Amino acid sequence: MTIFGVPTQALFGQLLIGLINGAFYALLSLGLSVIFGLLNIINFTHGAQYMMGAFAAYFLLNWAGLGYWWALLVAPIAVAITGIVLERLTLKRLYQLDHLYGLLLTFGFALIIQGLFRHQYGSSGLPYAMPAELAGGRNLGFMFLPNYRAWVIVFSLAVCLTTWYVIERTRLGSYLRAATENPALVQAFGINVPRMITLTYGFGVGLAALAGVLAAPIYQVNPLMGADLIIVVFAVVVIGGLGSIMGSIVTGFGLGVVEGFTKVFYPEASNTVIFVIMAVVLLLRPAGLFGRAS
Fold first, then answer.
1. If DSSP codes are grouped into helix, strand and coil, which group holds residue 28?
2. What is the pLDDT of residues 232-250, one digit of tens each?
3. Which residues pair with 139 in a beta bridge?
């Protein structure tokens, strides 16, 4: 059976790949949007922190004997702590300055982190086995659905929607948003705003590390895995709208699917289609699809 001259199995196979890539785009762009929307920092270290999450899972397995399920919990916390240290020592000095200063500083940290890991472990990927509980897959008739990839899509979507709900629909989220606009007023209510900002940055970093753990069994653990992805993720954030939580989620999954279908119908454009869409969006709606003009 074919659709538009393309075999059904190939079409749905690329749809699955698109959803997988979209899951990682959404998680990473969500972390970037949380950090920018609440802290006004363009965190270029995000790709390196995604890579650190994958390496943390690898270390936990080989050094501590902790498997995948423990890594989902421990690795994001461990990487988030390194992010908190980074924020306390350097980034907190830049909140009142132009965005360019934060971008340059975090870009420098990204190069340092990637360089250190590349020097120690080289550029080749390190294998990380997927959990036995999610091995195998299901034959749906029109395609074969691997269990682990289905898990990644569902789990990523659940994390993204939960984050959106907490920030947009709860009292904690209202405090976070208020702290970015009028920190003195929020401080007057007895809330420790600097601590809230630090924990928010740590949470955004933890989302990147969580994506790294999810990616490890699929893409292997590689010091450059974040560098290859972060430019695309920034394009996703720009298209969705800087600081827009729901924009990051919808755009991340949507562009992953668009990229997947492009590989079927016009493979030559699959590596550039997201950037073409970004250029069109910037021309027609500079604030992004879900962003609001300042």
1. helix
2. 999 999 999 887 899 999 9
3. 144
